[in-house]
Amino acid sequence: MSALWPITRDQKTRFILNAGGLNPAGAGQALSEAFIANGYKARIAVVEGDDVLHRLEELREHGESLTNLDTGEAVDPVLHKFSFANAYLGAKPLVEALQTGADIVVTGRVADACLFLAPLIHEFGWKWDEYDKLARGLAVGHLLECSGQVSGGNFGGDWESIQDLAHLGYPVATVDESGVAVIHKAEGSGGRIDFDSVRQQLLYEVNDPRAYVSPDVVLDMSSISLVDLGNDKVRVEGATGKPRPDRLKLVAGYPAGFVASAMLGYSWPDAMKKAKAAAAIVEAVIADSGALYEEIDISYLGFNALHGPLSDRSLVNELNEVFLRVAVKARDRKLAAAFGQHFPWMMVGGPPFVAALPNSDVRELTSIWPTLVARELVENQIRMTMIET
To answer: Is 207 helix (H, G, I), strand (E, B) or coil?
Structure first.
């Protein structure tokens, strides 16, 4: 923001940032201090209320089960282990912040597409029951939220035809009052915006195209029309919407142990055989040590690290090189950290033609807990603070 502000302030550009992470107040304060140090004048709105970690017992008292959305597990065994718990807020508090004249809005957790829906609601004065307009704004947000992906990044079609990804142009949406949008990018930038790149992003991370749920509206994508206008421009129109859900998604997490890993690379000939032999040695050393790891994961980069059991085994003898990766999970950090002791002698004590990579640092694992919560129990605690520099 310190770099952008001198470029954009004269154009009266306004920013909405979900850069607050788990501490939007701290992010707002850091931003204000940077602006003051640079002599920049701005009104910075900080939106809080997504953090419900210290309200979980209160939510339970109001009848919220907080059952795991994916597994159906009861929350009781892990309720007191959570290190964070954040609800996905919608566009409404962002719109309110813009209405107060904020130049920059800093938030914590909000549904990504709402960052784009909010300025449309504010600019055009859309009502909260104009579901089709809200749905069209949500579609725009969904197309823009993954930055360069709608411009040809991560393209699943003829990806080699996408030009100059090193200078990929991020997408821009020009939207009219009815919600009809043209997706385009800066002239001369890399990538490509066309019917295929837009439809790929439209369906990205979507379970039900007829019911794409957000905190503000449920989007029906089946009525959308994409018109390729050429010259990296695609018109998006026709989205329809249904009333917003009664409940918000909440994601919590708790510490789930530690992971450590090591990698050894083996070259042709017999690269895979060597890697498997090395894996057997590592497993034997672990067994001899008496180390009781919760999980041991063995994968072979260059063969099955990405495809797993679907890997083509007919290619196994043709591989030029294979990297053996062994990862362990442990509840105790010291036990995980000691994992690297099983590897120092492999350079001269195992199969031939080996290259070792440094052992990974020990990382703490987090187990994610998705659930639902009544929206009014979250929204009644949303608050906004204005900071003027």
So the answer is: coil
In a domain, 316, yes or no: yes
Q: State the pLDDT at residue 314.
A: 85
Q: 31: Cβ–Cβ under 8 A, 6 or more apart, which residues? A: 1, 44, 104, 106
* Within-domain flag for 93: no
> pTM for the whole thing?
0.91
Nearest to 49 by CA among 110, 3, 114: 110
Residue 360 has pLDDT above 90, yes or no: no
Question: Where would I find the H helices in the chain?
Answer: 5-8, 24-38, 56-61, 92-99, 114-124, 131-144, 195-202, 271-289, 333-337, 346-349, 375-379
- Tell me the pLDDT band of 344, cut-offs 50, 70 and 90: low
Q: How many domains does the chain have?
A: 2
Quick one: the chain helix, strand, coil %, rounded to 5?
A: 35, 30, 35
SS3 assignment, position 135:
helix
* pLDDT tops 80 at residue 342: no
Q: Which domain holds residue 359?
A: 255-368
Q: Quick check: helix, strand or coil at residue 104?
A: strand
Burial 248-283, CB ≥16 within 10 A → b, else e: bbbbbbbebbbbbbbbbbbeeebbbebbbebbebbe
pLDDT of residue 20: 84
Residues 6+ apart with CB under 8 A from 249: 69, 87, 88, 370, 371, 372
Q: 259 and 345: one domain?
A: yes
pLDDT tens digits, one per residue of 243-297: 999 999 999 999 999 999 999 999 999 999 999 999 999 999 999 999 999 999 9
